[in-house]
């Protein structure tokens, strides 16, 4: 199995890449994780495709395999679902030696990780991401948590998995909208860290939509490498890691205000256009680069404008961003394709001009 190592200060763990679930037992054996109760956490949609596949593989080596299934969707990423998980763990006598599997997309990974981080003050968990977004982004780096009172990821922790196991074949059942949503984070990685990668993704649209295995594998591994290098340097987002939040300041505000009507990656796409526009206004990038970014996002069927919200409500929601300090919104901008800069001194007028841009017609 191919693997990439993530080395944050608290632990070090691999991301394994496979074409099925069979090799997960090897990995579990290697990490000394046999002989215990295990619990798969997944949503109804993913369960219908992969719940039993993973269960059957695990049953070859474990006597007690439980499955907790919840309703799919970001609107269920809250503390009530976590409470239901705790109750399920207690009912089934999960103990400190037990092991949690997060089987699914970002919502599942974030919640299962948070439940694992807090149940009995922490039990081990494995990320088994089945969406492109989870494979390239949310399963790596240990950000776990839930939304709270309409605030995105407001309650959470940094809690690293024992390993990440990517079964690339799960992308075959992923709806196109979800694929595009994941590509938004892939484009983000190119924009903030690697111009060659950005160009590669820019020219791979048809192959990505055709689910070309070699191309997707290359993309997932490169994104994981890039993300791993950042979280390995700054696990708790004390500085550098903030660049991974490119597009998220506006994106999270839009996602929350729309009550999760748009997917996470779709909101990040709009947010990245807003941040690219600010980069242009600060003379960091040219108008041509801004248009190039918009074109790539559009080619992957991602939205680049938002009309249905008021500017003021977007601005107020952005003030709740986790990067706000002393009422100043810190933005991640681009100084070129492949290079990000963190900027904390943007004034309200300029920020609002980027929201107006997002409400303007596409030229
Ligand atoms: O891993 C990170 O760090 C990121 O910021 C990656 C983001 O793409 C991801 O959506 C993350 O969950 C957002 O975190 P938040 O701290 O802004 O809620």
From TrEMBL:
Swiss-Prot/TrEMBL keywords: Amino-acid biosynthesis, Aromatic amino acid biosynthesis, Cobalt, Cytoplasm, Lyase, Metal-binding, NAD, Nucleotide-binding, Zinc
Gene3D superfamilies per record: 3.40.50.1970, Dehydroquinate synthase-like - alpha domain (1.20.1090.10)
CDD domains per record: DHQS
Subcellular location, principal: cytoplasm
Subcellular localization: Cytoplasm
Main enzyme class: lyase
Residues that hold NAD(+) according to the record: 106-110, 130-131, 143, 152, 170-173
3-dehydroquinate synthase C-terminal domain residues: 182-324
Enzyme Commission (EC) number: 4.2.3.4
Pfam families: DHQ_synthase, DHQS_C
GO molecular function: 3-dehydroquinate synthase activity
InterPro entries with a match to the protein in the record: Dehydroquinate_synthase, DHQ_synth_AroB, DHQ_synth_fam, DHQS/DOIS_N, DHQS_C
Role according to the record: Catalyzes the conversion of 3-deoxy-D-arabino-heptulosonate 7-phosphate (DAHP) to dehydroquinate (DHQ).
PANTHER family documented for this protein: 3-DEHYDROQUINATE SYNTHASE, 3-DEHYDROQUINATE SYNTHASE, CHLOROPLASTIC
Protein name: 3-dehydroquinate synthase
Gene expressing this chain: aroB
């Amino acid at each position: 199995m191919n693997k990439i190592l993530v080395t944050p200060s608290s632990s070090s763990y691999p991301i394994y890449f496979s074409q099925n679930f069979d090799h997960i037992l090897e990995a579990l054996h290697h990490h000394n994780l046999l002989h215990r109760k295990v619990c798969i956490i997944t949503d109804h949609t993913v369960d219908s495709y992969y719940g039993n596949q993973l269960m059957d593989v695990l049953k070859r080596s474990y006597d007690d395999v439980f499955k907790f299934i919840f309703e799919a969707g970001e609107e269920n990423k809250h503390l009530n679902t976590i409470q239901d998980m705790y109750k399920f763990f207690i009912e089934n006598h999960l103990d400190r030696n037990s092991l949690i599997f997060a089987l699914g997309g970002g919502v599942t990974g974030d919640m299962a990780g948070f439940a694992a981080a807090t149940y009995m003050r922490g039990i081990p968990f494995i990320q088994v991401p089945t969406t492109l977004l989870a494979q390239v982004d949310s399963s790596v780096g240990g950000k776990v948590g839930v939304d709270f009172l309409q605030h995105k990821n407001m309650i959470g922790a940094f809690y690293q998995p024992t390993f990440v196991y990517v079964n690339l074949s799960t992308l075959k059942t992923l709806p196109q909208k979800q694929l595009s949503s994941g590509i938004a984070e892939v484009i983000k990685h190119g924009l903030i860290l690697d111009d060659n990668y950005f160009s590669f993704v820019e020219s791979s649209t048809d192959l990505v939509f055709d689910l070309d295995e070699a191309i997707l594998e290359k993309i997932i591994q490169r994104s994981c490498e890039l993300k791993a290098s950042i979280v390995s340097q700054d696990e708790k987002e004390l500085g550098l890691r903030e660049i991974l939040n490119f597009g998220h300041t506006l994106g999270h505000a839009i996602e929350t205000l729309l009550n999760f009507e748009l997917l996470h990656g779709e909101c990040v796409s709009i947010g990245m256009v807003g941040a690219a526009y600010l980069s242009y206004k600060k003379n960091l990038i040219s108008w041509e680069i801004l248009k190039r970014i918009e074109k790539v996002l559009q080619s992957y069927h991602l939205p680049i404008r938002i009309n249905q919200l008021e500017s003021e409500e977007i601005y107020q929601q952005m003030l709740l961003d986790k990067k706000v300090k002393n009422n100043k919104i810190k933005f991640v901008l681009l100084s070129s394709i492949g290079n990000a800069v963190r900027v904390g001194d943007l004034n309200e007028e300029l920020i609002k001009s980027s929201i107006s841009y997002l409400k303007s017609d596409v030229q």
